[in-house]
Amino acid sequence: MPYRETEKMRQRKAKARQRIIDCTYACVAEGGFRSARITRIAALSEVATGTIYRHFESREDLFAEVFRRATQREVDKVAEALATEGDATVRLEHALRQFAERAIRGPVMAWSLIAEPVDPKVEEERLTYRKAYANLFESAIREGIRDDCIPDQDASQSSTCLVGAIAESLVGPLSPAQADGNVRITPEDKNALVDSIIRFCMQGLTGTRK
Questions:
Q1: Do 104 and 193 form a contact (C-beta atoms < 8 A)?
Q2: According to DSSP H, which parts of 32-87 are helical?
Q3: Rounded distance, CA 180 to CA 43, Å?
Q4: Residue of higher predicted confidence among 121 and 178
Q5: What predicted TM-score, i.e. pTM, was given to this entire model?
Q6: Spatial CA neighbour of 93 closest among 85, 82, 109, 101
Q7: Distance between CA atoms of 33 and 115, rounded to whole angstroms?
Q8: Which residues bind DNA (predicted)?
Q9: pLDDT value, residue 103
Q10: Of all residues in the chain, what percent are helix, strand and coil, respectively (each to 5)?
Q11: pLDDT one-digit tens code per residue, 155-202
Q12: What is d(CA 171, CA 185) in angstroms, rounded to the nearest whole number?
């Protein structure tokens, strides 16, 4: 009679897999993907190193899964911001500010998601999620054009520009070199940085100054 996995066994495996993902996420949030070593993840997860490879074919597969989950949280926050009240410009500004402020509050994870050199599988996920952000912005831009609060333009191109502008603007401030060089950004500087980024994005989008 062939072996049939019991429900209890499936649940145990699912819990172990989730624990590995959670511990990997914690490692990345603390020091980026570069610090998330399999031996450390195994120790934190209280499993043998080989157990990790029973749940994930490779280190890259594990990191890609963690990247997907971490970035989806941020995409969901942007989507929530775009679903609030107000015209398209108000909601876009709110969503961009949400993106920037969350990145500043969690600089290590944000750097890991936005700019840290990563394996090809993780880089593929990065490109996928940049497109996810762009799709959200594009829908809002099209709505704004339709409602005459945003000038007529190529919504697809503009949305891609917004993603690139806000991500690249944050690379320097989020860089580990800032922390390694003991560069401290004051709360006032953080607010000014976010305001500057949002002002640039919205002026480029609407052609008007605030």
A1: yes
A2: 38-45, 49-55, 59-82
A3: 26
A4: 121
A5: 0.89
A6: 82
A7: 11
A8: 37-56
A9: 94
A10: 80, 0, 20
A11: 999 999 999 999 999 998 888 866 554 556 777 888 999 999 999 999
A12: 14
Instruction: Give the number of other CB atoms < 10 A from CB of residue 158.
Output: 20
Structure tokens at 116: 């840290």
pLDDT tens digit sequence for 3-60: 667 888 888 889 999 999 999 999 999 999 999 999 999 999 999 999 999 999 999 9
Which residue type occupies 190? K
Residue position matching structure tokens 């108000």 = 90
Angle ∠(206,200,77) on CA atoms, nearest 5: 85
Question: Computed from CA positions of residues 202, 208, 209, 210, in that sequence, does the dihedral angle turn out positive or negative?
Answer: negative
Angle between helices 120-146 and 88-105 in degrees, nearest 10: 150
Is the pLDDT at 90 greater than 60, yes or no? yes
Q: Enumerate domains of the chain plus CATH numbers.
A: 1-56 (1.10.10), 66-206 (1.10.357.10)
Q: Are 112 and 175 in contact, with CB atoms under 8 Å apart?
A: no
Q: Taking all residues of the chain, what is their mean pLDDT, rounded to a whole number?
A: 92
Residue 119 token pair = 């394996």
Looking at residue 88, its pLDDT comes to: 97
Rounded mean pLDDT, 82-107: 95
Residue 28: both structure tokens together? 């990345």
By C-alpha distance, which of 85, 155, 70 is closest to 116? 70
Please report, for residues 11, 46, 47, 148, the alpha-carbon distance to residue 92 in angstroms, rounded to integers and kept in the order given.
41, 43, 44, 15
